[in-house]
Design goal:
Elements lengths: L4 E5 L8 H13 L5 E5 L7 E2 L13 H7 L3 H18 L3 E4 L2 H13 L5 E5 L12 H13 L2 E4 L2 H11 L6 E3 L20 E6 L8 H11 L5 E6 L14 E5 L3 H9 L3 E3 L13 H9 L3 E4 L4 H8 L2 E4 L4 H13 L2 H18 L2 H14 L4
Parallel strand pairs: 1-2, 1-4, 2-3, 4-5, 5-6, 6-7, 8-9, 8-11, 9-10, 11-12, 12-13
Amino acid sequence: MSERICFVCFFGFNQITGTPIRAKKVIEIIEKQREVMVIASGKYKNNIDYSRNQKLENKQGSLFVRLLKKNQKIKIFILWLKLLNELIRSSERNIYCFDHSSAFAASIYKILFNKNCRIIFEVHNLAVLPDRQNKLWDFIERFCYSKVDCILAPTNKMKEILVEKYTVDKNKINVIWVSADLDKIKFKPLRKSSKFIIGYGGNDSPYQGVPLMLEAAKKISSNKKIEFMFVGLDPKKYTSYASETIKFPGKLPDKEFFNSLSNCNALMVCYTGTFAETTFPSKVSNYLALGRPIIVPNTGELPFIIHLANCGVIFKQNNVDELVNRINYLYSRPFSELETFSINARKFAEEKLNPDSYEKEINEIFKKLNID
């Protein structure tokens, strides 16, 4: 019988930010082949909610980061103790973490209560990056990397930083790209239309670059044949931008969300700061699965992926004029070229980002760690 995997998460699952979305994908893939347990600060099926009676699951972003920004270290400590208590009660042997605060609690559990447990840590961000520096976070990161048994990095750039900046043994790190929701996202062939629709799907967290996209949309608004659709943003928050060519359908269930984006002619991401330097965002994997030409900034592994897939264009990060230029460039291209980008994007997702590939890779890691 296969051993159970315990997923530990310092966040709730009702968020639409990348890490909870990614965590749900991973859990869904692994629970098809073995028993899983989920310990999280919010509701997920029949999981253990260690933050009971604290209304946390509807908040966006990492619970740890929110509390840290408010300097509420005592609350962080109490939640760590609760999480640690759940691990002790269930005597977990195989732990899978998605964030540093969970990996920290799991590492303490390993040192003090179960030195034979195996910890897999899927890293999504790094404190060494300029806009994420914090002494406490930096200490927690370094402590975790030294104690966990395996690190999963979403890009080769992150692996490089972990080795060079944190002196992590490169043999401890495995690079696994984010799989796409191919079951949920049905490919619709790109079709000619009277309107050229540029889509964005997600939230408006600071690093998403929503102001940059809105500015670009306003600059292009004189061309009534180009429309912008911002799916997932609160329409009430952006009433001053709403117009004949800039639309806000609001937050939608998964099926309607992906269906709205599939009606677009191209999709864009405009990450600011260092967020995308080391990550492979879930948004990008889903854009690829939708099979649409993609506009990305020249940061991290995104240009490499777009070049490899041959499915889009690149602009200089944080440069609105370049973004406008790239949008106009796609608009001017013949339909046959856009259709090729579309087909290439979906093909890349099916070949490189399918859940079966992830399952095969993670099973190899389980095998290396002697997890039956």
